[in-house]
Amino acid sequence: KNLNSHKMKNLNSHKMKRNLLICFTLILSTNLFSQSFDISKIRAGGGLMFATEIKNVGLTLNGTYEITEQWEGTLAFTHIFEKDYFKWNVLDLDGHYVFYKQDEKLNVYGLAGLSFTFWKVTIPAMDLGYGFTTPEITDTGSDIGLNIGLGATYKLTDKLNLSPEMRFTIIDGSYLRIGATLQYMF
User: Fold this and answer.
1) pTM higher than 0.90 for the full model?
2) What share of the chain is helix, strand, coil (3-state, %, to 5)?
3) 3-class SS of residue 8
4) Which of 4, 15, 51, 148 is the most exposed place for a label (fewest CB within 10 A)?
């Protein structure tokens, strides 16, 4: 009975976090689309990253909007490849403050924002022999955390940027992500 009660609490907590994320994303989207956009201030791309505590590589897709010369907003989705029966997906909503701009080719920024980490573990059923089999065990969860980090944007061509980043996500089981994306400038 205690196990079922614990599972229901985890399920309710997961649903509440998911609903909070959906509401936050809808509010952010509504605010962003209600403003008049200058399409030339948008960059979007993808790349690779490494998560230290998870000790695995993932793919990142992100989009950045230049609000002013010093402030940018970014939305990123990262899928970290499965390892040891675990799968992770991370949604990041960050702000960038450009504190160094050498010229039109290079800028360096600090970042801060929210991270929504979603995980799933599936341990397959195992045959122990003599007619005994363990059941498959599946559990899911999510964590909301804070991102802090540094990044840079280096202009490769008129339309392409290379953007290396290092971000620390502070949650229960905090982790560091290091990676780079290739971004197309619209």
Assistant:
1) no
2) 20, 60, 20
3) helix
4) 4
